[in-house]
Fold:
Amino acid sequence: MGIAMVAIFLLLMLLGAPIALAIMIPGVLGIYFSPGGEGLLLVVPQQLFLGVNSFQLLTIPLFVLAGTLMAEGGIARRLMDLAECTVARGRGGLGAATVVSTMFFHGISGSSTADTAAIARVTLPTLKDQGYPVPFATAVLAAAGATATLIPPTIDLIIIGVVANMSIAGLFAGGLIPAVINGIGLISTVVYLSWRRSYGRLQMTASLRQMFIAFVKAVPALFMIVIILGGILGGVFTPTEASVVAVVYGFLISFFVYRDLKLHMLPAIFRSTILLSGGVLFVIASSSVLTYAMTINQVPQSLAAALNEYASSPWLFLLLVQILFFFIGMIMDGLPALIITMPILTPIAVAHGIQPIHFGILVEANLALAMAHPPAGTCLYAACAVSKIPFEKVIVPLIPFLAVLIVTLLIITYVEKFSMFLPQLLHLT
Amino acid sequence: METLQRALARLVTVLERGIFWFASALLLFLVVTLFCQVFWRYVLLQPLQWSEEGARFGLVWFSMAAACTAAIEGQHFVFRWATLLISPAARFWLRRAMDVLTVLVLLTVFKLSLDYLNLVAAQTATGVQLNMRVPYAAVSFGTLTLAIIFVAETLDALLSLRTGRVFSARELNETLIYGQLQAPSARKE
Structure:
């Protein structure tokens, strides 16, 4: 039955059915054909309801709303101004500042695609002025936007926490050091390539006074990171409460302090939040039906037994998982992939002695890589949409960044301490 | 034929506007409810009894309404790479077959959800003191509205074979995306 459900899902997906329906249909059939199945069909609407009747899932529309409010409200520009004044010195400095500001902005917005588009709109003109070729600048933005997905409050980590029953605060803490490792890798690559190819200016552009002004202007934006990260990791707020505080605070500073947000912009901001959340939440609701069908047909147990047979050591298991997600990331969007696979794979990983948070982070790091390259690279497409060049032109400049991210992915995968140090320190495991 | 298409397009537009404002109101409800929860808990030190459950039920309704808006705009996740390999005509009919299958599944789940509403008719939510049919009705609302949207889209697509005009936002979005996905090979040619 398990194989039949997976086959039907794959067939429907390949035939172009909406992923939510491609998930729901094998779930309904799996329940119907299970022992005593016809009487069980009433659980289908119940599972659709229970799939989204979750306090933690409230973070998805709220963080998306907060991110969109702030992207439109001028926060990205203030953060970039600060990064330009402080980090953008010497050759490659502006490229490095782009990576830093992308990561900071993700710490506020939680959405990689919105993050990439917002920072790209602000930085691309300056990068062009400083002599960075547009394909190279676009590649930097795509790689930085993708890797920033490890920085809380990312939607992917919230989904991993909900569907695989992990501490969301623990996942948020666990993603920080791997994100810094990726960031250091990207900054080093940008600076090295810029020196080799003479991109960017050598002289320092900002005085101390300019730096101070940029810092003062960015303080309200930076305080948002303190609220979100400090609130969640310090145990003051739940992630859901932090998300609503982010919405209210983001609205107040964008509307009253920066004054870039206007009331007439709100319907478009709401629409963008509704469209993104609707797609994700309906997949989560549908996957609840499939997960139920798989459980009553004992699919996770059969899969665990098969995987144990072929991957007896944790080392080999992790390698297989990374290869699996690398290919999944190449063919489909990361969110549905996480929703379908994480409830099944996490118990198997735990049985191999792998910490759940470490497992969640290494999977997310892998999917982050997929966001930077075609065919499913949403950050790449967002950067290309702003720079107005076809993505094929970005592929060659992107290769060194992808190579660096693959190396850092292997480090994150096999050195558990990088993911587990902060969650253990903060007692969030 | 085109008159019928225009009528269908008007129906979908009215539906889209109504659902969009409904979803926006629900989003605002989620923000206000949860902010009240934070304010009462941390400032007034008197946690609200109903806010968490109310927000969860609001989220279920929001999810269904948002899924309908996303369906009208063609924003649901779809894997398109395999269907790039077939001709546009074959892809058109394949999409119609998927639409019909989707409608059948949604109507089946809608029927089941009505039966489930009878099952929970006597239950009351502890926090918000609502009859449980109210939150569960979101599933019936979502599946029925999605089915109506897919029927309207399918009819529009079939009528477009005669009129040569497409009114569906989702169909236009799909055409645009397939155009972008096929752009590299088209340029090589």
